[in-house]
Prior knowledge:
- By secondary structure, this protein is an alpha+beta fold.
- The chain has helices spanning 100-106, 152-160, 244-262, 269-288, 294-297, 348-354, 360-365, 403-406, 412-418, 427-440; strands at 68-69, 94-95, 141-142, 145-146, 162-163, 191-195, 200-204, 214-222, 228-237, 305-313, 318-323, 327-332, 340-341, 376-377, 386-390, 396-401, 447-454, 466-467.
Amino acid sequence: MNDRNPEQRLSVCPGCAEPLDPTDRFCGACGHALSVAAEPGADRPTVALGTEPAATWPAPAPRDLSAQTQHPGDLPSPDPATAAGGSRAAQAVVEGTATAAGGLAAAGIPAPHGPADPASGEAVRHDGPSSAEDGEGNGDTAGDYELAAPDPRVAAVAAQVKVCVACRAGRVDTDGYCENCGHAQPRERDHMERELESVAAVSDRGLRHHRNEDAFAVSSTALPDGSPAAVAIVCDGVSSATRPDEASAAAASAANRSLLAALPRGTHPQQAMMEAIVAAADAVNSLAEEPGSARDHDPHRNAPACTIVGSVVTGELLVVGWVGDSRAYWVPDDRSAPPARLTEDDSWAAQMVSSGLMNEAEAYADERAHAITGWLGADAYELEPHTAAYKPDRPGVVVVCTDGLWNYAEGAQEMARVVPPDASGRPLHGAQVLVGHALDGGGHDNVTVALLPFALPHEGAGSACGAAGDSPSA
């Protein structure tokens, strides 16, 4: 029988809007369970962020960290940026968004209506006031029944329910299709999200590629003095190479492991980033050396390859490192302050601009613009990791991304316009908005973005920004 009261009965199916009879338990069109109406999905909240004072590290032996100085605030001020929300073409597989009772009903488990009698299992009527009531019966009661204690079966069922990314109502069967609308669900790597307290990242296959060849790794650790450090690595597989998806995954994982091993030992973050890129290159090189690889069967196939960009954020230091054309941007919370691009592409277009043969607009309009001149892989001419370190004088957020995003927000000012104003406090939401911006723009490539909030440890910290190695461009 229908468990709902007469005034709670549905007139149309919440899954497909098919008209219903009052006695229907399931929709005749799509089979949707009608015992409990599906609730709309909610925006997932993220936590507010903050950072503690960072340690002072010994200078790394192999690198001179005082070569020159540069600060994002030294760049020309842009026009005031306008905040852009950006819509998102939903791709993430959302788990557990069905209500607890709905999940039980779908699994054939009746939802409890009140405290059960230990002997019979039937709900027990309660006519007197509960401990939460006063003498007149005012308290946390549902009619004449006590509110039931949480049923442990609810969480177990809800955790197993996958909801369709298209209709947001139907369950996903074991074959990966929605039982309501038939929509095929994305593969696990087609859309990935990860959120930690101080860093978040989102990666999406995009709208044109048949697989996601990007990869990322985000993590956090503690420095020797106990202060926190956040890490983000983003890699973009070279599509013209063999197994680019494996290359990006191997590089991101190796770089992340290297940083998590080096930072707690007291290695300067810039030196640690240099070592991480070398470790990532070794990991990608090893793919070409694996027995039975594609190259063994076809000597004309090239080796796996990818680009890499990473960032480490501590209490007062911001470090970036890269090889290829994936980028990092600095976007201050105060949008009247100038943003900056922190990396310089290893690409044909960048070479044309730096040599003075073309201006930036001409170079990036050329069909050869995105031909990279530096990458990780056994076919690379020479590994030349780039690193830079900064001490921002104001709070902001570091955007670490592949060209799947910056193709739709290339300049620093353009990027600042599409980064949500609350990105520092809600990094996962900010990353979702940026991925949505790329998809709304056409989604021609895989798109991956990580956001690392930077908060000053105290007022007036770090009025200058020192950079070592390669100078970032605006």
